[in-house]
Design goal:
- The chain is an alpha+beta fold and 160 residues long.
- It is built from six helices and six strands, in the order αβββααβααβαβ.
- The chain has a six-stranded antiparallel sheet with strand order 3-2-1-4-6-5, sandwiched between helices.
- Helix 4 crosses helix 5.
- The longest helix has 23 residues.
- The chain is globular and about 45 Å long.
- The model has no long low-confidence stretch (mean pLDDT 89).
Length: 160
C-alpha cells in the first residue's frame, strides 16, 4: 500500500519522484512487522525502525485522545519540512504539502477499502507528533494522519 501511494502525483510543483511529505508510522498489528515507530524510506521501499514497542496509548493521545488511532492496525503520519516548502514555493508551499499528503492519503484509503480494511483520517496534536518521531522528524510538521486496518477490539485484543 505504501509503495503504490508514494509513487508520486502528477502536479506542476513536483518533479518525478520528488515529494514534500515523509511518512512516519506507528504500527500496532501488521503481519510480519514488529510493533513500533517507523519511517518509510521511499528510496529503498522499506520501513526503518525508529523505536520498537507497543505505542497504542501514545497513538491514542497523539490522535487527540481518540480511540481509533489506539485501536487500528497502523497509523500513518504525513510530515513535511515546511521551511523548505515555503522557501521553494512561497505561500503556496503549505498548500502544496497539504495537497500532496491528501492525495497520498486518498490512495491509501482506496487500497485499504480494496482489501476490506478500515481507514479513517484523524486530527492530531501537531507538535507532539513531531516530538514522538524525533529526533528523526525534528523540524517537520504534520500534514495528515490516517489510521488503517482492523479494530483490535473486534479481534479481542486489549487496546489500552
Amino acid at each position: 500500500m505504501l509503495d503504490r501511494a508514494t509513487r508520486g502525483i502528477p502536479a506542476d510543483f513536483l518533479n518525478s519522484g520528488e515529494s514534500l511529505n515523509d511518512l512516519y508510522l506507528i504500527i500496532h498489528a501488521v503481519d510480519d512487522i514488529r510493533p513500533g515507530a517507523y519511517y518509510f524510506r521511499r528510496d529503498k521501499r522499506a520501513l526503518e525502525l525508529l523505536k520498537e514497542g507497543d505505542f497504542r496509548r501514545e497513538a491514542g493521545y497523539l490522535g487527540l485522545g481518540q480511540e481509533i488511532p489506539a485501536d487500528c492496525s497502523v497509523n500513518i503520519y504525513f510530515l513535511a519540512d515546511l521551511n523548505r516548502a515555503l522557501e521553494r514555493f512561497g505561500n503556496r508551499g503549505y498548500r502544496a504539502a497539504q495537497l500532496e499528503a491528501s492525495i497520498m492519503g486518498g490512495k491509501l484509503y482506496l487500497a485499504a477499502y480494496a482489501q476490506r480494511l478500515g481507514a479513517s483520517g484523524l486530527t492530531f496534536f501537531d507538535d507532539d507528533v513531531t516530538e514522538f518521531f524525533s529526533p528523526h522528524a525534528a523540524g517537520k510538521s504534520v500534514m495528515f494522519l490516517l489510521a488503517l486496518g482492523k479494530s483490535a477490539k473486534k479481534r479481542g485484543l486489549n487496546v489500552i
